[in-house]
Amino acid sequence: MKVIFKFFLNLIPRPILIKLSYWIRPLIAFSLKGNKFTDPIDGNSFRKFLPYGYGIQRENALSPSTLSLERHRLLWLYLQNETDFFTSKKKVLHMAPEQCFLSVFKKQPNLDYTTADLYSPIADVKADICNLPFEDSAFDVVFCNHVLEHIPNDTLAMQELYRVMKPNGFGIFQIPQDLNRATTFEDNSITDEKERAKIFGQYDHVRVYGRDYFDKLRAVGFKVDEVDYTKKIAQKDVERFCLSKGEILPVCFK
Fold it and tell me: Could you read off the pLDDT of 171-223 as tens digits, one per residue?
């Protein structure tokens, strides 16, 4: 069974995996039931999570029930424990919505929830992040996770996210980040997909963000809190929820 899981995950691109997951996910989740690891998004527990990753596989990364990754579970815990996201009325924009959040957020009675993306089949609005079809100061909360590393003009995208956020609103804009790198690296001359995967970590990424990512956000107007939320979570829960210790949440305010 383990060989079948790894073959399935390694060879099938994530967008197709998401579509297939609607029928195969319950079977995988049932076969892995246990009590060692817990997905905080739905509360289900398993004897193991699934491996995931481009190139090098991360063990116990992908939840069998929600298909959440470490970053999704960290974001969920932050929203649940540190904000009023699930209790106060809010107008929310979610760029490139993740499947693990979509149905849950849509069901929240306090949220006026809009999803947008240029290509995603599960988004409500087809929209270019560099030219969003929304009014200024329209949303209390904006999510844009693991998107900016795909966008050639990320500064323009950041400006659009700032424009559509209400004053006193907040957003979380996660990205893959090399915290050992002081400055972001990008080279537009690299167009070969194999070379991009080798240098940027994925075939469709156009840069590797360094620690200066937070200052790039500040430069367009955001106040940015660099939140290492795993420091506030007990070690036993970091392990139980399969989180990446030391991952930084960029929490942005207008």
Answer: 999 999 999 999 998 988 888 878 877 877 777 889 999 999 999 999 999 99
Q: Are 52 and 73 in contact (CB under 8 A)?
A: no
Beta-sheet strands, E only, within 118-158: 125-126, 139-144
Tell me which residue of 157, 139, 141 sits closest to 149, measured CA to CA: 157
Residue 66 to residue 165: CA distance in whole angstroms: 28
9 and 51 in contact (C-beta within 8 Å)? yes
For 109-136, write each residue's pLDDT tens digit.
999 999 999 998 889 999 999 999 999 9
Architecture of domain 71-253: 3-Layer(aba) Sandwich (3.40)
**CA 146/CA 155 separation, integer angstroms:** 15
Cα separation, 19 vs 136, in Å, equals 34
- 165: which strand partners? 139
Domain ranges of the chain: 2-67, 71-253
Residue 69 near residue 24, CB atoms below 8 Å? no
pTM of this structure: 0.87
